[in-house]
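Supplementary Methods, section 5.1.

A reviewer requested that the exact input to the structure prediction be made available. We therefore reproduce it here, unchanged from the version used in the analyses.
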Amino acid sequence: MLRTLLRRRKKMLTIEDVTVTDRPEVHRAVSAAALGNMMEWFDFGVYAYMAATLGKVFFPSGSSGTQVIAAFATFAAAFVVRPLGGLVFGPLGDRIGRQKVLAATMIMMAVSTFAVGLLPAYATVGVAAPVLLLVCRLVQGFSTGGEYAGATTYIAEYAPDKRRGFLGSWLDFGTFVGYALGSGLVTVLTAVLGTDGLADWGWRLPFLVAGPLGLIGLYMRMRLEETPAFRAEAESEAELAGAEEARQSGHGRLKEIFTGHWHAVLICMGLVVVYNVTSYVVTSYLPTFMTETLKQNPTTAQLLVLATMVLVALTITTVGRRSDTWGRRPMFMAGSAALVALAVPALLLIRAGGVLLPALGCFVLGLLLVVFAGTSAATLPALFPTRMRYGALSVSYNISVSLFGGTTPLVVSALLESTGNEMVPAYYLMGAGVIGFLSAFFLHETAGKPLRGSGPMVETPEQAERLVAHSRTEAGRRARNVWLHLRHPGHRHDEKH
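The structure derived from this sequence is encoded token-by-token as follows.
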């Protein structure tokens, strides 16, 4: 009888506890989430590649260096309000559903990005022009505060446990495809119109493309269902109607995030630092650094960074698949250590001149970036339980991005301008690598395991049956060992005995 009690001490896994995913539904979820991220980074690619041009259009009175800093300051302003967007959209997504919030953020992003293409220049309305640009950027930042965390949560809660890294990597695949499309469009416009034509009217065209992209993304997101994990959590809370958990307000959830999950918040923020600093140095700052600081040919510099983004996009799903096999923790630790070791050599190659060596330096940074990009979407949502995953991830992610990610081009530009040291970007990357390594050191491995607060997720009914059978076998073996230990204390009992 004691052995039976030991076996039942922990609730046995049943077939009802295992979710069998629907493959077409999973593919729709991944596609819709990735498209939203693609649109967000299309805007970033356009803005980063046209920072110098936008500086001339909206801040014409300063020197070229001041214009770039002013343009990046407007770029960074959007990140100031991202935590506010996370505070609003994150808890809202945990209360009313992921799908509804993701549709709302898509609308806001599309409208605000499209509006930038309609803004008057400084020469037309004076100081009102940069003010209107700032307003558009603030709306973009506010909506983005709920975008990435919601998209990663959505994919993670749909993906089978053993393929979460691979499927999650498609989200950041959309990121770099969007960036490549945006930067590629600017590169083509620069070659066709020249710098004068681009500054005169051509800068508007990439932003106007965001309107049709937003309509397509909205249509796809409106067709999505809620995630299985959210539906199960909603049903559980409905059964607990009247209990504190079921009626907890958004403010109560935020308080619990920082009091009960502060360690996960810190780990999340550290991992986001190394990912986003690397990303914004490569994608947003490097084109301007190569043209304005190193005085390289603008078209050559743009093509090199564009080729780097293509390299990242081509390798990112392979990295995601490897994270399912090797684990998230080793990937982050190895990538962070490599960033510390290779940041200076990579920047020296970029400064070398010509085409071949700068291309090699860009590719080194791109391969370091893809380690973090291909792993993050599966790692970050797994840090938090289902009932507060969207909110906790939104707050943690956006605070970190606001402080260290989106401000990277501005901070690095200002440091380089004040010190005159062209190695500043490498030192900044090395600091991010140290933070990433320490954060990954304290990260618990989640590859192949169910999300916190959710049951196992598999792809087929046969996998579910095997998982339940294996669980029962393991439970019986553990109970047997405890029984033998109680019967024969001090004797070591081998699992295979």
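The CA atoms of residues 270 and 438 lie 8 Å apart. These observations are discussed further in the main text.
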